[in-house]
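Practice problem: predict the structure.
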Amino acid sequence: MTALIHLIDVTGFTLPDGTGSRDWFGNAFADLGLTPEIELRAYDGISGRLPAPGAMAAGGQGIIISGSRGSVNEDKPWIAPLIDFIREAHRLNAWILGICFGHQLLAKALGGTVEPNRRGREMGTVPIYLTPQGEQAPLLRGLRSGDWVNLVHRTHVTKLPPGAVRLAFNQMTPTQAFQAGRSFGFQPHPELGPEQLIQLTGMYREILINREGFLEDEDHLRDYLGTFRETPRSRAILLNYVRMISS
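Answer:
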């Protein structure tokens, strides 16, 4: 059976090479050998184009909510309708996977709290660790404590939704993943690799060096670019997700 993946794309930008979320997820699914098994259907969530929540609860379908350049707490006209969509899809027991911004918006929609991280920006290739529940979670099958992930964020989930279970954490971000029924939040970006992180860093160069002090200078930037890595076990959560919704 072909799995139908509904990608709600709220990225809001493309990289200098012209690629966006649909390309990154499409390439990730291709790298996992899943292209023959899935249909990836993208929706521009910023324009308000969303699928009907009721249809999402059918077997063999799943929803992925992408990352975005802003915060879930910003007053943007498309955020409230997307929250309503998430709540209804969750109520109908649809499979939902929120990535980065999507992870945080899922938490907020289900009654959690998202705030700026007092520890600052977390960006690059870093390790995360699994909770006992995370070691048993089907989404994280094959991922081990201390495995590397790629991520970019400044806000994070500070309070889980009622009934949700924390699956992963690290020293910067206490909730890197969670589960609430068939809804999963994953703060890292399994769809991104070093090539995309290098371009993102270039786009954020002025902010990272001169505004935030995340990087000290151009020499620090040059060294930092060499730290990005492929994260195959993190990417494999997309394979796990397809297997879950197809079962």
